[in-house]
C-alpha cells in the first residue's frame, strides 16, 4: 500500500489535491491540505492519488511506500 507524502516546503496551498482526493485530504482556510487520516492510500483510491500527484502544480505530492508503524 502506498501513502501520500506532502512536501510542505514546496506546497503553495492551492488546494487542488483536496479537490482531487477528498477522501484523504481536506483543505484548511488558507487552501493548504489537511490529512483526514493516516494518508495511506487504499487500492481503490490509487488512481485518484496518482492523479493528484501528477497535477500538483508545485510538485509537492508524492506516493511513498506505507510503513506500518
Ligand atoms: S495541489 Fe500541491 S501545491 Fe496545491 S495544496 Fe495540494 S500539495 Fe499543495
UniProtKB/TrEMBL annotation:
Pfam families referenced in this protein's UniProt entry, alphabetically: Fer4_15
Protein name: Ferredoxin
Originating species: Paractinoplanes ovalisporus
Taxonomic path: Bacteria, Bacillati, Actinomycetota, Actinomycetes, Micromonosporales
Amino acid at each position: 500500500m502506498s501513502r501520500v507524502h506532502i512536501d510542505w516546503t514546496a506546497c503553495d496551498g492551492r488546494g487542488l489535491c483536496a479537490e482531487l482526493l477528498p477522501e484523504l485530504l481536506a483543505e484548511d482556510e488558507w487552501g493548504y491540505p489537511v490529512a483526514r487520516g493516516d494518508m495511506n492510500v487504499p487500492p481503490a483510491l490509487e488512481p485518484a492519488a496518482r492523479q493528484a500527484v501528477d497535477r500538483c502544480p508545485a510538485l509537492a505530492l508524492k506516493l511513498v511506500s506505507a510503513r506500518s508503524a
